[in-house]
Write a structure and sequence with these properties.
Strand order of the largest sheet: 1-2-10-7-12-5-4-3
Pfam families: 2OG-FeII_Oxy, DIOX_N
Radius of gyration: 23 Å
Distance between the termini: 46 Å
Family: Belongs to the iron/ascorbate-dependent oxidoreductase family.
InterPro entries: DIOX_N, IPNS-like_FE2OG_OXY, IPNS-like_sf, Oxoglu/Fe-dep_dioxygenase_dom
Shape: globular
Number of strands: 16
Strand content: 5-15%
Protein name: Fe2OG dioxygenase domain-containing protein
Keywords: Iron, Metal-binding, Oxidoreductase
Low-confidence stretches: 1-51, 73-99, 120-194, 466-472, 481-487
Bound molecules: 2-oxoglutaric acid, fe (ii) ion
Number of helices: 18
Mean pLDDT: 67
Structural class: alpha+beta
Largest sheet: 8 strands, antiparallel
Amino acid sequence: MIEGKSEKGKSKEIGHEEDSEGKLLSPSSKEAKPSSYCPSSATPGVPLYPLQLDVVKHLVKLSPVKAVLACVFGNCILYGGNDYSSTMSGSLTNGPGSVQKHDADRLFFEFALDQSERFPTLNRWIQIQTNLHRVSEVAVTAEHSVNDGIEAKTSVKRFREHDSDSDLEHDELVAVGTSSLSVLTDTTNESACHHWGFFNIVNHGVSKDLYESIHSFSNQFFDLPSETKLKLGPSSCIKTYTPPFIASPYFESLKVCGPDFHSSAQDSIDVIFDEKPHEFCEILEEYGKRMTKLSNKIMKIALMILGEEFDTRFYNSDFKKCHGYLRINRYSPPMKSEGKETTELGLGMHTDMSCITIVYQDDSGGLQVKSKEDGRWMDIAQSEGTLVVNIGDLLQAWSNNKLVSSEHRVVLKKPVNRLSIAFFWCFEDEKVIYAPKEVVGNGNMRFYEPFVCSDYLKFRESNEEGKFEKVGFTVKDFVTNNTKSSV
Ligand SMILES: O=C(O)CCC(=O)C(=O)O
Ligand SMILES: [Fe+2]
């Protein structure tokens, strides 16, 4: 559920965060607040306005910090009827060159600091930003947590009433786990771009109810006897069911393909159910549609982040024919004696053969990403209302490694069944993947010779180690024999 859905939930969430985290003690947060600025415009619980794409684009150019903050808080600051809003709106109308950058920077940051007093997680993040800016011009790196390692995400709560049934408009998205979005946006920082390849999104338009329905129907499916489920298994014609002992002893999954998710789900249930749960097809159709819209939106933002106007330049030519499919995964770890923790591998280390993957994991958590720095496994903590997005191999290749596909896995720490839904957004099979020269950049090394998407998928599927379940081989292995060239 998106935070802010119920009044009760909201206050609990805010209270919890304020109790557990400190406040940013900044001299400028109160005294330097511009008199024209009206903090009440973003009171928790009062809906914030949707962002406009040109505003985000503009902010991305100014600084990832601003873009992230705008994404988190919406454009209330831009439309608050104050001087700042007219400065920003005017500047956008007259072109980016006319921004009074220094003033805009100061006002925006002051706004952020003010907000941070009410949003302690953001507060912590801004503090990290400030420190980093002091040390260098580099915008951001991942946030270090106190114990063993790094949280691959920072959930910035967006206390916004969300109409989960409304269609997502292009400029409506996005509150994104900040550290990881920054990893994406910070194209000036090579090491950051190579860092995680994972980030979180909220405000994605999928309601808790929809997940609950998928949960209950999926359990109805996975609870069937294995001989029934195997009618959809690897030796069947339909091959939508992956039984245990292929990926791991504890993993099984059901695949539903787009663009017609309804008929794909129907094909599977027709084979196995006498009394067909038609609602299941409708629910999966709804989920598939939402993920499709979301994927397009994320792709456009990713392109925008890769370069100025890259969304308008490359979306139609390269990403318009993308398609999606989803896997509902159920993990059933061995039931040890009550209360005892297990650490079984639910899904081995792999990279995804997609452009992007959007993962819903239930509250048992368990998704982990491997640090490229020291090989340690980092938890991607589950947080209600968030979806995890990760970059897949195909986008890594298309972006010439500017966006990275990270190795990840699932560990089963709790002796409870775990449900996840992975939505893979992929290039069409016949697409020749070749990073445009503008993406590679003048004088930069080109890492991949052109290759046909289906050849890569075959390479992964025909190698025992390269299958999505196991890994070992990634897009890098695929191009090993290709000559590297520079642009
Ligand atoms: O179950 C999960 O959380 C992740 C699944 C996954 O990585 C995949 O299906 O590729
Ligand atoms: Fe995956």
